Amino acid sequence: MDQKNDFVKRKAKPVEGSRWSQWWSYDGINGPEYWGLLNKEWALCKRGQHQSPVDINPRSLVFDPNLRPVRTDNHRVDSFIVNTGHDITIYINETNSQPFDFTGGPLSYNYRAHHIKVHFGSMDQLGSEHTIEGRPFPLELQIYGYNTELYDKYRDAELSAHGIAAIALFGIDDDDDDDDDDDDDDGCGGGDDGGEFEVTVPSRCLDLIIFKIASAFSDTSTPYPELSIEALLPETPDYMTYEGSLTQPSCWETVTWVVFNKPVRVKKEQLRLLRNLHKADDIGAPPRLMENNFRPPLPVNRRTIRTNIQPRDLITTVMMIMMMMMMMMMMMMMMMMMMMMNDDDDDDDDDDDDDDDDDDDDDDDDDSDDDFGNCGDISKTIKPEMIFLV
Q1: Is omega for the bond preceding 53 within 30 degrees of 0, making it cis?
Q2: Residue 70's beta-bridge partner residues?
Q3: What local confidence, expressed as pLDDT, does residue 9 receive?
Q4: Mind listing the pLDDT tens digit for each residue in 109-154?
Q5: Residues 142, 148, 152: CA angle, nearest 5 degrees
Q6: With the C-alpha atoms ordered 151, 155, 156, 162, is the resulting torsion angle positive or negative?
Q7: N or C end of the chain: which has fewer CB within 10 A?
Q8: What pLDDT shows up at residue 175?
Q9: Transmembrane region positions (predicted)?
């Protein structure tokens, strides 16, 4: 309980006594373009060269064979959901539950999950912060963890190199409207509501979280016991990774991002629930929808985005090269057979025309040359270097 209250106070605590720390938004004069001007401590939001999110271009990815799968715990954690006024944040209660740690892949240290942020848009074409080749997704979940080997607190890690690791996963609209009844334990946690809520198997835990968010968003915080973070992750070892920043002020450039390439499915009804959420604004202020709570992609600049995804073009290229080599061999065999057939024809013509005059012999020779010439000089059309032009 003390941990929960501490988080609520921390959320509302101004930076150096200034209320400007809470006056940023995702639109208008307090939107992302102006974050760096609202507070001097947020200067990186404007001038930083390693900002997040980014647009990921598959053609610019660098395959790194040394990247291993990210390893995670399977511990369930006690948590609580908070409407911060900017987004929905699920804080992990580290005091009352076993921690959820993750490491491996591009991470050289152990990181402990601290909170999860939910970003979404007003329509299916908006919502995620990271994009793939200019394409956004309806939803993005971001799991933030701090380096427990070098730092004791999230706040200290947030300000330091190698301090934060963030796992991003996309959510897409589930076109399957058929619900599967499941009265068994769904493995997601969340209390007694889990067994009564019908969800599709691919997005079971995410659907349940959204249901909990929508059913109690008006409260300051809502408990979510025994949350299974592992069950939220997509079933894939493939990801993209790069060095970036926090996507909200103060935009510290201390984050190693891991972006899974396989999205999870979310039912349309759950997306509608999110889009009807209102911001937790000051008392007396008119209610406003929370939708479109995402920062647009920032330039990649000189950064390298690595991946452990095997390049498919490599296999395709090898197969095409092998096929072209086989075709070349077949063509050369055909050419040799045709040359042998032409030699036999020439011998027969010579035997039949021994008694002809010299002019006829010349004509026959010309005709023989013309017949060979009609086939073309096949040997000149096959160039060994062509097999690599794939």
Answers
A1: yes
A2: 104
A3: 32
A4: 999 999 999 999 999 999 999 999 999 999 999 999 999 999 999 9
A5: 110
A6: positive
A7: N
A8: 66
A9: 314-333
Q: For residue 13, give the amino acid letter.
A: K
CA distance 61 to 65: 13
Residue ranges in the chain modelled with pLDDT below 70: 1-22, 175-187, 189-204, 216-220, 280-286, 312-322, 324-325, 328, 343-390
DSSP state of 317: H
| Cβ-Cβ contacts under 8 Å for 263 (sequence gap 6 or more) | 137, 169, 170, 171, 172, 234
Taking the C-alpha atoms of residue 212 and residue 208, their distance in angstroms, rounded to an integer, is 6
| pTM to 2 decimal places | 0.72
User: Strands, E, within 35-105: which ranges?
Assistant: 55-56, 62-63, 70-72, 76-83, 88-92, 101-104
pLDDT of residue 229: 93
Sequence letter at residue 284: G
- Say what the pLDDT of residue 213 is: 83
Residue 169's Cβ-count burial label (10 Å; 0-12, 13-18, 19+) is: buried
The secondary structure of 338-363, three-state, reads: HHHHHHHHHHHHHHHCCCCCHHHHHH
CA 351/CA 372 separation, integer angstroms: 19
Of 217, 206, 220, nearest to 289 (Cα)?
A: 217
Phi, psi of 227 (to 5 degrees): -70, 130
Q: What angle do CA 23, 26, 29 make, to 5 degrees?
A: 65
Which pLDDT belongs to residue 380? Answer: 35
